[in-house]
UniProtKB/TrEMBL annotation, chain A:
Name of the protein in question: ABC-type quaternary amine transporter
Organism: Nesterenkonia sedimenti
Signal peptide coordinates: none
InterPro entries: AAA+_ATPase, ABC_SmlMolc_Importer, ABC_transporter-like_ATP-bd, ABC_transporter-like_CS, Mo/tungstate-bd_C_term_dom, P-loop_NTPase, Transp-assoc_OB_typ2
EC number: 7.6.2.9
GO molecular function list: ABC-type quaternary ammonium compound transporting activity; ATP binding; ATP hydrolysis activity
A Gene Ontology cellular-component term: ATP-binding cassette (ABC) transporter complex
ABC transporter domain segment(s): 11-241
Ranges that cross the membrane: none
Record key words, sorted: ATP-binding, Nucleotide-binding, Transport
UniProtKB/TrEMBL annotation, chain B:
Domain spans labelled ABC transmembrane type-1: 68-272
PROSITE patterns: ABC_TM1
Species: Nesterenkonia sedimenti
Main localization, broad class: membrane
Alphabetical list of SUPFAM superfamilies matching this protein: MetI-like
Alphabetically ordered keywords of this record: Cell membrane, Membrane, Transmembrane, Transmembrane helix, Transport
Protein name per the record: ABC transporter permease
GO cellular component, one term: plasma membrane
Family: Belongs to the binding-protein-dependent transport system permease family. CysTW subfamily.
TM annotation in the entry: 18-42, 67-90, 102-127, 147-171, 251-275
From TrEMBL, chain C:
Parts of the chain that traverse the membrane: 69-94, 106-128, 140-161, 181-203, 239-260
Record lineage: Bacteria, Bacillati, Actinomycetota, Actinomycetes, Micrococcales
Major place of residence: membrane
Membrane disposition: Multi-pass membrane protein
Protein name per its UniProtKB record: ABC transporter permease
Classification via InterPro entries: MetI-like (IPR000515), MetI-like_sf (IPR035906)
Residue ranges of every copy of the ABC transmembrane type-1 domain listed in the record: 69-257
Keyword list, A-Z: Cell inner membrane, Cell membrane, Membrane, Transmembrane, Transmembrane helix, Transport
Amino acid sequence: MTSEQTPGAALELDGVTKNFGSFTAIQDVTLSIEPGEFITFLGPSGSGKTTTLNCIAGFEDVTAGEITLAGQSLTDQPVHRRNLGMVFQGYALFPHMSVEKNVAYPLKQRKVPKAQREKDVTATLEKVGLTEFRHRLPSQLSGGQRQRVALARAICFNPPLLLMDEPLSALDKALREQLQQEIRRIHRDLGTTVVFVTHDQDEALALSDRIVVFNKGKVVQVGTPRELYLQPENVFVSEFVGESLMISGDYRNSQFHSDSGTVFATDTTQELGWTGPAQMMIRPENISIHDAAASADTAATGECSVTGFLEDITYVGNAVKYRVGLPDGGGIVRAEDIGGEVADIGSEVTLSWAAADARILAKETSEEPAHA
Amino acid sequence: MAAETVAAKPARRSLGPYGILVVPVVVIVLVAFVVPTVLVLIRSVTEPELGLQNFQWLLTSETAVDVIIRTFQLAGLATLLTAVIAYPYAYVMATAGPKMQAAMTLIVLLPFWSSMMVRTFAWIIILQNNGVLNTMLSSLGLPTIQLLGTQTAVLIGMVQVLMPFMVLPMVSVMRSIDMRIPLAAQTFGARPIKAFFTVYLPMSLPGVLSGALIVFILSLGFYVVPALLGSPRQQILPNALFNQIRDLNNWGSGGALAVALLFTVGMAFVLVYLVTKALGLKLGPVGGSQV
Amino acid sequence: MTKNRPKIKKSRLFLYLLCVPIAFWLVAPTLVVIPLSFTPQRSFAFPPPGFSLEWYENFFTSPQWLGGLLNSLQIALLVASISSILGTLAAYGLSKTSGFRKTLSNGLLVSPILIPAVIFGVGVYAVFLRTGLVGTMAGFVLAHTMLALPFVVVNVGAVLVAYDTQLERAAWVSGAGRIRAFMTVTLPVIWPGVASGFLFAFITSFDEVIVSAFISSPALQTLPVRMFTSVQREVDPTIAAAATLIIILTTAIALTAIFTRKKRKV
């Protein structure tokens, strides 16, 4: 089987812009995707991720810019000559064709001889675990099974690039996680390049080699899940990917001055090269939380500390999430479950963290999209 | 979300020359339907010579004026009768179970699907002087009635075919009425009859109006039923038009009658539009889903 | 509330009883032609005083009656086919356009339903007199197609509203060009709308009297026109035989339609 595989192809987007009349859906998207890489486009509705995908697929003509696959321009190719696999949000299975006819459809368009077609369909259906359903109609399948058929139809001809448009959004959580694993496995087996669109950050973190975060028609950050989580480059990414504690203030003289006047030390390795209005972000698990009244002396275990009010407590398995309100912000703190709450809701708590774990981000004005 | 919805619409246009698929059909309809129809109207002022003499005839000739008034009366009566008969039928249909509803839809559509000529011929057999109806009446010892050749016969035949065009829009509006509202009116002390007239009837009015519009327009165009069940002395516009052209070769006065007919249809549209606007109603689907 | 219950039921029963004669009036009258077609007399007297197949024999041996039926069938089939193709293309094109152009084309294509057919009849008669199309098959097909097209456009348009355009995109991505994607995916999915459009078009043409009365000639007549002149001029129970045959034919078509639709759903 390995001999039949086409390895994934490199995908390049260079200054891709798409206008609909006076509305700019995506602006100057430039990306370089490695062969065989699993890339996720992450962003809220209307951020431009789906439009970008549609430009790659060819459903939209780009207004400006260039898209190349394996070094060849796609921009002037009609959709049906781009040789892409695609899984649609609503599955888009042909309702009048059986499972095997759906899967065979792209092979038929490629004029694959009948015997070979049969073989490819059988192999692909085996891969997605649908062998015994091959004669059923899509209407006779469950949501998860339909999703697998859609996947099978997209990969049966070993496309160099597989596009997936929110393929799991209609499924329940357990099924979604199971299919995420299968998609990863199939990606490893095929070695094809995958572009996966989602608005679900957990899904993006779980699946991707790298994530492209979209906001308001622009790419705001590209990075591995770890990079996005630990080193977000702007407030949008830090809020969209994972939870955090935020404090509003100013950055100057390599120090963070909160709006109410507290000065915090910052990570000296983060070279900013600017001063001005800023947000300080700390991830929940890097903060320790104590009851301010009970242990005022032991509070300052980290280099930085601040006092706030405990607003809410949520149990998440082995940990506890505390929502804390601060004079200049607030957010989530995550702590090991120590067999009880550190304090009651409404009481004063002290938070502390190491300066190296705090990240300074430029404050965004409401008009200007993310500071990239 | 907003951006993606905005994205979807113009995208379709950019997807290629789909408009071209419409062009040949539009051209054929323009050449084979619109042009001949417009030519008829033009002839009303060019035949036998340029001028308004045909309209002068239309508005002064007693026969022509009678025909126009009779057409209006017949269409109005047919619409009223259809509405009155269709309303209880539609009400039962809208509030019945799905099986009953399917059966009632089938029944009301049957005359529409069966051949116009067959149906009209059947009415002749039933309504003629020694026909089915009178045979039954006399066997019951009742006096026989002369129906064939009267407006009543025309109405019996017309309303039967017009029923689905009234029932379907009524049902689609009635089905959307929340039955708890009339019930609520009853709990506030309104008697069932009063609750019906003050609450349910006004709510179902858009369906009645859109049904009435299409029924009125269709009744203006009936030809076979009045020609065969009515009297030749009580012609309506379509029949008069046919005679002027096919029998008398009078293109000018025929054209004037056509203008009058088309004008009436246009007036019906305007009238219903004004009524719905004045009452602040939203029109139900014209003609219903089947038509 | 509980007191009102039986009252509501009583009024409901009254309404049901009201619907029975209405339903009877809608369905039953047409059926009188069936016994009449077996009458042994040259009269429309009812009930017929005996049994005979004379009028059926007359129907099938008369070139006017049988010829009319064959003409009608031929014209209706051609009209249904042509208007299904043109109407489907137009409805598909319209589903991809928007704005003023769409409203205008839509209004134009549907106008033959709203404008009284007699006006159009006069119009085609005038044009056909000059172009020599009166009493020709081509003339009938052209005129009837105009009347049948709106039904196809409306029926196919209604199905296209519910059509998921993602399916077409999926076909394109799979390697099918625009035309092949339409033929292999879109058309099979919207097929019920096309089929019912075809049926409407067939019935519209097969049943048409007024426009046909204008453009028919002694040489070429449709069955409804033959029936129309027969009723006006003579007492000939052959018309009852013709009517019975039409009832059988339309019932058969309707039953097939219902049967195939049920089968598809399973």
